[in-house]
Amino acid sequence: MGRISGLVPSRFLTLLAHLVVVITLFWSRDSNIQACLPLTFTPEEYEKQDIQLVAALSVTLVLFAVELAGFFSGVSMFNSTQNLFSIGAHCSASVALSFFIFERWECTMYCALPAVTEMALFISVFGLKKKPF
């Protein structure tokens, strides 16, 4: 039981850390959009990149809602495999997005694997009536 009790708060903290970094990215997206564009760009290119970044961040927030719903409902709270996977994914995403903000990386990658596995657990628990742990 000690292993699970340590994973649950760790998962919650990494989820919140990733959420805070995504919200910070919403606030500072202007400089990151410029980093994604060539040195000379048109207003149309800027607007297109802004729409893409806002859309990706909006999808990210929706997937956060899915993952937090699964976590708070207990579907995946005590599933140690999901907890470890979520901790690793959100921790690495928090670090990568922090570098994206501060180092002005290019806009190229997006991963939704933790939310996909969370939805698979939802289907397993509610659709197939299996225990989540």
N/C terminus separation? 12 Å
Name the beta content range.
under 5%
Strands, total number: 0
Instruction: Report Rg.
Output: 17 Å
The helix-strand sequence is HHHHH
Biggest sheet features: none
Poorly predicted segments: none
Q: Which term fits the overall shape?
A: elongated
Which structural category fits the helices and strands? Answer: mainly alpha
Q: How helix-rich are the residues, as a percent range?
A: over 70%
Mean pLDDT over the residues: 84
Count of helical stretches: 5
Topology:
Layout: H1 2-27, H2 29-36, H3 43-73, H4 80-103, H5 113-127
Helix pairs in contact: 1-3, 1-4, 2-3, 3-5, 4-5
Describe this structure in words.
It contains 5 helices and no strands. With 133 residues, it is mainly alpha-helical. The longest helix has 31 residues, at 43-73. The protein starts with a helix and ends in a 6-residue tail after the last helix.
Short description:
By secondary structure, this protein is an all-alpha fold.
Key features?
mainly alpha, 133 residues, 78% helix
